[in-house]
Amino acid sequence: MTTAAASTTGLPIDIKPGKLFIADKFVDARSGKTFDTINPATEEVLTSVAEADKADVDLAVAAARKAVDEGPWATMDARERGRLLYKLAALVDANRDEIATLETLDNGKPIFETSNVDVPQVIDVLEYYAGWADKIHGDTVPASGNFFTYTRREPHGVCGQIIPWNFPLLMAAWKLGPALACGNAVVLKPAEQTPLTAIRLAELVREAGFPTGVVNILPGYGPTAGSAIVNHPHVDKVAFTGSTEVGRQIQRESAGTLKSVSLELGGKSPNIVFADADLDAAVQGAMAGIFFNQGEVCCAGSRLFVEESIHDEFVSALADHAKQVRVGDPLDADTRMGAQVSEEQFTKILGYIDAGKKSGAKIATGGERALDKGYFVQPTVFEGVKDDMTIAREEIFGPVVAALPFKDLEEAVARGNDTNYGLAAAVWTNDIKKAHRVAHALKAGTVWVNTYNSFDAAVPFGGYKESGIGRELGKHALDLYTQTKAVWVALD
Ligand code: ADP
Prior knowledge:
Elements: E1 2-4, E2 20-22, E3 25-27, E4 34-39, E5 44-50, H1 54-69, H2 72-75, H3 78-94, H4 96-107, H5 111-132, E6 140-141, E7 147-155, E8 158-162, H6 168-181, E9 185-189, H7 196-208, E10 215-217, H8 222-231, E11 237-241, H9 244-254, E12 260-264, E13 270-273, H10 279-291, E14 303-307, H11 311-324, E15 326-328, H12 343-358, E16 362-365, E17 369-370, E18 376-377, E19 380-383, H13 390-393, E20 400-406, H14 409-417, E21 424-428, H15 432-441, E22 446-449, E23 468-469, H16 476-480, E24 482-490
Parallel strand pairs: 1-15, 8-9, 8-11, 9-10, 11-12, 13-14, 13-21, 14-20, 19-20, 21-22
Antiparallel strand pairs: 2-3, 4-5, 6-7, 7-24, 12-23, 16-19, 17-18
Helix pairs in contact: 1-8, 3-5, 3-7, 4-5, 5-6, 10-11
The site of adenosine-5'-diphosphate has 17 residues, from helix 8 and helix 9.
């Protein structure tokens, strides 16, 4: 690991205080309350942001309700909705450098990633769903009797969307793209740790010319603003990405008004390396699987199963690579791992590392904080891990991987599946039959073969078991944001 400290002064872009975006206007919270958002690389305040709570949620939901019930949005041609989404994508593109910098400052992830992954994928997702807007339709159905029977795919109406801090703008795009393509109006709450790019997106929504109330953005906290969205009787659907614990609570709370709920939650994904794999590629894959985005990835390959015969050699190669990762100032173009998002996450990750050491696992590399200031953690590889240790069972959400030797395919699959999570998994082998057998046997919403963390707007993503309900991205997300109406017309 090499390090370079983050600069504490002289931000490269202007950052204004953040407001709520309700009914096409930027406003203060009704309560007048604000909260600070910080730069996790320097621990310094970036700016203050209006803090929404229930009163603001009521206003935003009323604006969204009006947009779907009365406004021009309700009767707009589907193709025109698509054009607005294309325009939004083009505006993000036109401001890509500034947006990437803003995301890096607010989240702590390297500019290398925000420029090359987050912002390009935001544009991709918005364009992908822009293309869907006029291709969402029902069927004619050959019902018995003398009827003309057809289905319509109608929007739910008002969608409450609650997103996390690990990919702040990208998660907003995953949520807004399909919801708007389908004709819904949206009340979106970014995470309190990273509200700035969602607020910037609101400016672009306005510039693109979406009708009043179609998109409302409410920075604020989960138990206040988030919970008010989930419990609101005029919110028809809730989409959430975040921890399994909060997902459970959201599902419980939304039962009160029987909302449609989709959840994308945590993971403890198995990354399985067989001895016959291309080992250089597998080491790179294991690196990407756990250190991309500082390990703050719900599908991180945090349980690394390595076939016994190559285990020691593989772990030692992985540790050597991990030592080379350049950790430091996220604004430096050469940095490959930035800061964890917050002091809370930083402390939590160091706590897990400590628990790993205490339980008898051995550090192959890392295991400490990096730098004196900022929430940086060393890329950490544990070996000698047992399946029942906390570091092999709980989601750490940091750059910490547990290496676990295995004997054969059956054992790898059984142990890989021995978790309440089921978000993603990967298998590395040059044997095509083995690859598909394992891919079919793993209980996960995504299985990567000889790759890790591959994503595309067209490919569905979501969890088995306690990793979630529903699939985002691809045409699958259209199912989340529409409901089907059957229309029967008697012909005699
Ligand atoms: P993490 O623990 O990784 O910060 P959370 O699941 O707590 O993730 O947060 C993800 C999102 O859910 C954030 O926008 C957060 O504000 C929101 N949230 C947290 N608690 C609640 C809640 N009780 N109701 C609704 N939203 C919540």
